[in-house]
Sequence to fold (572 residues):
Amino acid sequence: MGFTFLICVLNTFLAAFGFLSTDLPATNSTGHGVTSSKGLALTSWPSLENAMNNSFKILVRNASDIEGSGCPIELSLDFPISELMERNGFSWKNDSDGSVMLGSCNFNIFKKSFFVIHGWSLVPLPDTWIDSLVAAIFHRHPHSNVFVLNWLDLAQVRYAHAVKRGHRVGRHIAAFIDWLNEQWGYLPKRVHLVGFSLGAHVAGSVGSAVSRGQIGRITGLDPAGPIFETAPPDKSLSPDDALFVDAIHTSIVGPAGMNFSMGIRRPVGHQDFYPNGGSYQPGCDWSLAYENVGKYGIMGVAQTLKCGHERAVHIFVDTLRSKYLPPAYPCSSLEEWQRGHCLKCNKSTCPLMGKEVKLNNRARRHAIHHKGLYLQTAASSPFIVYHYKVKSDMFIPYGAPLDSEPLLRISLHGSLRSAKDLPLPLYDDFSSNKSHSWLVHTSTELGDLKSVHLSWDIEDGLLWKTWLALSTYFVGGNDDEGEKPRIMAKKVHIKSGESGHRWKFCTEDSDWVIMKRFNEEKFDICPPDLTSKEFQPSQDALPENLASSIRPSLWPLLFVPLSTLLTIFTSH
Fold:
């Protein structure tokens, strides 16, 4: 069952991008295309007749009718924009408020305009996120013009063909914006293009093709990766396409570790945001594929694949609805980010995700080679979280073998609330004394931190169990857990990413502590006059109670007969 399902998933994934042949439509017993309850043909790909249809439309949305389909402006790749405008009968609406009638659609030349552009599609249905994005735009900009580009008839083909058609659609939208400028002096810098997946690169085509000025802003929501990862800047979204280009990357790693990602990895804008490192998004677990297939049928595979891909849309919607824009931190790599090394700015100085930035020419040129901007998010809206760097010197004394890593956790207790049992993954060797650091995040603001608690456990592996048994049998240990291997920890340093505030926590009588397994050690704010001491893991540096308990070396145990070791191990 599991293997068959995995093959099905893989075939669907590859077929969707045109690597397998799926030209034949699904048919019923009569030989006709299968239809849904809404009368829509559920074929694998559109018929030749539909594929040759080069028409698409712009839907002018109204703030008073968010869920409405919008007022259509019919366009086609086969006719120049000027001729299409004449066919639609566009004319002035003689009001003093700057309103213009685009056919039967209202457009205000004094207001900012948004274009929402969807991407490649497997089914002839509008993406479910479009209405929520339109509503969020009107929430932030209630008097703006909002255009939704519907090019589903052109996008519902093999991916490579959709890419080529997307470039043509982009050039036509650019001609439409030029026409608005020519007819009524509407400046392209008042236009904000928002494109998802392949739609982000369509937006790039619009920006590069506009001939009368430059587009004000383009936001790429997880710009598509296939074909574009190695494409030149003039063939993909790039910083040259608008006065300000920002992008949110949420699926730069393929499902189940596949080396094939839905979203593009490389930076494509002046500011490129990588929530959760741009890879795994909380709440988008691949294990949910079975549940989604049970709920949606074979399309449940697509639901699973697009969870992380579409997360960029939902995060952007959150920024439009929230009064507080999340800060993001410039960082050179995911590894540096996970270790907390990049919290070098705060909410007052960090770039804010969702905020439009006015760049001068020098900044615009420099931004092409900028670092990625990293931040963590929650699994659902509101996605905003609070970042902390945790740093402490730790090691396991006596050189205990580790075939399983210790499971470290920290609890933060602040003046407003607490966050408990935050995991501290191990990124380095834990057998020698060195400084370790981690990035942790909380879903709520904690306020001024008052204390922290550290604890640890381990998934017992064979070497660890053997070491515990031998140390007890040969060197006089007892059944007290306190006599078994422990973790040594120095004082704990915490830094808030959002405020930049720093805290230093100590134990009651020392700047380092012996942490017993299963026990939780409390660290309070260090006294102002307490100075840190460099810790050297020698017997002289150890506290008296630990130094007296050090046993002779366990190296002679290597020469104990195997039968004796097995006997000892099985008896514990």
